[in-house]
Design goal:
Elements (H helix, E strand, L loop, with lengths): L14 H22 L4 H28 L5 H25 L3 H32 L6
Helix pairs in contact: 1-2, 1-4, 2-3, 3-4
Bound molecules: MU-OXO-diiron (FEO).
Length: 139
């Protein structure tokens, strides 16, 4: 599997969000590595749990920032978050039902990794630009 690396071009220009993205990538890598290495079911469940909990923390943080700054793109952005929330819930259900399958390993490694990077590049950066252009103070 290809380990995801934080790069400066992923910065959205909002420090707390950049820091969360770095941690998020870490949790993603841990889960993808555990699955690729076919670690124990308990270990994989643990890494997936960390990934899901952190994803929720991160999405909630961004949604709070967007809501608090009256960002017009909130609903569109939140719809993308909800899409991933559903995908993760489905992946966990598949894992609980069938354990690690090739389909699940591929979904984590390719789909989820690509989704995450694409989302930061294409969606999160729009909010970053809004914050900078409007000199929004986030709280
Ligand atoms: Fe950083 Fe919109 O997730």
């Amino acid at each position: 599997m290809k380990k995801m690396q934080w790069q400066n071009n992923l910065s959205v220009g909002i420090e707390p969000i950049d820091n969360q993205h770095k941690q998020w990538i870490e949790y993603f890598n841990n889960a993808a590595e555990a699955i690729a290495a076919r670690q124990s079911r308990t270990q994989i469940a643990k890494t997936l749990g960390f990934l899901i909990d952190y994803t929720e923390l991160h999405f909630s943080t961004e949604e709070r920032f967007m809501s608090g700054s009256n960002y017009a793109g909130l609903q569109e952005h939140k719809a993308k978050h909800d899409e991933l929330r559903r995908t993760l819930a489905n992946l966990v259900r598949d894992f609980e039902d069938e354990g690690i399958t090739s389909r699940l390993a591929e979904a984590i490694d390719i789909f989820l990794g690509n989704w995450l990077i694409q989302h930061i590049h294409e969606i999160d950066t729009k909010f970053g630009a809004f914050v900078r252009e409007n000199k929004v103070v986030l709280s």
